[in-house]
What does this fold into?
Amino acid sequence: MAPGAERRPRPSRRRLVAASLVWTAGCAATALLVPGVADASTHLAAAASLKEVIDNLRNVIVGLLVGLATLFATIGGVRYMLAGGDPGEVEAAKKTLRYAAIGYSVAVLAPLLVKMLQSIVGTPS
It folds into this structure.
């Protein structure tokens, strides 16, 4: 260790267990979302009309966004719990959680964006 460098405290066993439980729950939630995305993507090319293609594409994008946002929320939560009071690490964890919130908000707004696209293209809703 370099002279004058501070040593970061190690997280307690309780924090490590909590972080591993959060990580496991987040990974399980993300894994549960994957079959829905795969199912929607298999119907993407088999659609008979443009409206069905757009709806299927929306479902795939929303599923991917929610899965990715869940993964980011899990990573941010684990980083926050393991930060040990380090201000730089806490800020990085907050930034990761902020990105997860942005991902969720984009996923919520996706149906509105599809409606706007349908009005531009001219397909009936």
Summary: The chain has three helices and no strands. The two ends are 64 Å apart (CA to CA). Helices lie at 13-42, 50-81, 87-121. Residues 13-121 form one domain.
